[in-house]
């Protein structure tokens, strides 16, 4: 199901103008605080009205100011998950979940409560009250409540922002399952490159109330010039690899693409599974000759496709390896010492341990 947004809204001295279409399972609204992400989500939810514009989900027109169409929030059938879970403290998890069913007409209810409970792994929590849940458990219940309302669209406004790293790691796989195993389109708000790279099919970058870029995640996130300064260290590339084999004695997985062979910390996936790998530019070393006798397990051959010198002490080098486009962030001194130039053939060196924590491999969104 597709979502199409074309609207304008003035909020005091701030003007939001957004035009984009999302055709994938999860569209991420990405940008720094104050860029207009939450304001845009509230417009889609119907909590505020645009000054002009049109919002369409599938075949349903939610807003069309030229035709004076404004579907009220309770008729939009949108599941909204906030930063904080907003569960009813006096109700059990089971009662909180079932509360969501009241918002869907009987003839339009498709969500199976047992299926949602299994999807989110919350069966053992059903008799607890919210004060007995961890932050990650509360968010999973909040997602479940929204799903049981049988929504035509899910809005998730930075649902991991209030969680620590451990709780984020706990809940991310469930959001991936929601993306891959349901047919519900998701609008996901975030200011984290790591989250967006892991989850999004499509990305919309917002800044100052304007859409700077939108399209497939791999294409948009490759625009390092559009990333907020706070996320520059996480800049890199998204590439697709295929699981080739496991190396149990070493706890590694071998993956392949036309660009070469990779070894990463073990990925629990069957041979032939497509995975998406985020390779940060700061983790890619360059060599003019094929290195030997080194500890790094990933050495690929590539060609320099571009060099962005910028204004600072570092340089961003774009390289093509087979069908993959990778990036390396090096110092200006290294650029001059190595005499790098466009078209030059180089070797890329990436340590396997670089993929622990901040950069990793994830199930590809298109995978079944």
TrEMBL record:
One of its GO terms (cellular component) is membrane. The keyword Transcription regulation does not apply. Residues 2-233 form the ABC transporter domain. Coiled coil: none annotated. InterPro entries: AAA+_ATPase, ABC_transporter-like_ATP-bd, ABC_transporter-like_CS, Mo/tungstate-bd_C_term_dom, ModC_ABC_ATP-bd, Molybdenum_import_ModC, Mop_domain, P-loop_NTPase. Transmembrane segments: none annotated. Keywords: ATP-binding, Cell inner membrane, Cell membrane, Membrane, Molybdenum, Nucleotide-binding, Translocase, Transport. Residues 293-359 form the Mop domain. GO terms for molecular function: ABC-type transporter activity; ATP binding; ATP hydrolysis activity; molybdate ion transmembrane transporter activity. This is Molybdenum import ATP-binding protein ModC. The lineage of its organism: Bacteria, Pseudomonadati, Pseudomonadota, Alphaproteobacteria, Hyphomicrobiales. The gene is modC.
């Amino acid at each position: 199901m597709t979502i199409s947004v074309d609207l304008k809204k003035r909020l005091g001295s701030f003007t939001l103008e957004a035009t984009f279409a999302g055709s994938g399972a999860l569209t991420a609204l990405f940008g720094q605080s104050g860029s207009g992400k939450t304001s845009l989500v509230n417009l889609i939810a119907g909590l505020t009205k645009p000054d002009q514009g049109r919002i369409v989900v599938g075949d349903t027109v939610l807003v069309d100011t030229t035709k004076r169409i404004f579907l009220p929030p309770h008729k939009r059938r949108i599941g909204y998950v906030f930063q904080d879970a907003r569960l009813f403290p006096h109700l059990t998890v089971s009662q909180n979940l079932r509360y969501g069913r009241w918002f869907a007409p009987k003839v339009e209810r498709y969500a199976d409560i047992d299926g949602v409970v299994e999807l989110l792994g919350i069966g053992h929590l059903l008799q607890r009250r919210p004060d007995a849940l961890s932050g990650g458990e509360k968010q999973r219940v909040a997602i479940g409540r929204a799903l049981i309302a049988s929504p035509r669209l899910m809005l998730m406004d930075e649902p991991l922002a209030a969680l620590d790293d451990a709780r984020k790691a706990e809940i991310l796989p469930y959001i991936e399952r929601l993306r891959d195993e349901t047919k519900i389109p998701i609008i996901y708000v975030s200011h984290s490159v790591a989250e967006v790279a892991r989850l999004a099919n499509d990305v919309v970058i917002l800044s100052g109330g304007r859409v700077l870029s939108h399209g497939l995640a791999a294409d948009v996130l490759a625009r390092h010039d559009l990333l907020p300064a706070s996320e520059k260290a996480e800049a890199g590339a998204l590439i697709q690899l295929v699981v080739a084999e496991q190396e149990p004695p070493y706890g590694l997985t071998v993956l392949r693409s036309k660009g070469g062979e990779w070894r990463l910390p073990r990925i629990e996936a069957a041979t032939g599974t497509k995975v998406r790998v985020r390779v940060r530019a700061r983790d890619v070393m360059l060599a003019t000759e094929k290195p030997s006798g080194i500890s790094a397990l990933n050495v690929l051959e590539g060609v320099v496709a571009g060099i962005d010198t910028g204004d600072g002490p570092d340089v961003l080098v774009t390289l093509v390896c087979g069908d993959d486009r990778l990036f390396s962030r090096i110092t200006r001194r290294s650029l001059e010492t190595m005499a790098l130039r466009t078209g030059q053939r180089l070797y890329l060196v990436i340590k396997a341990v670089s993929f622990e924590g901040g950069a990793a491999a994830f199930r590809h969104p298109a995978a079944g």
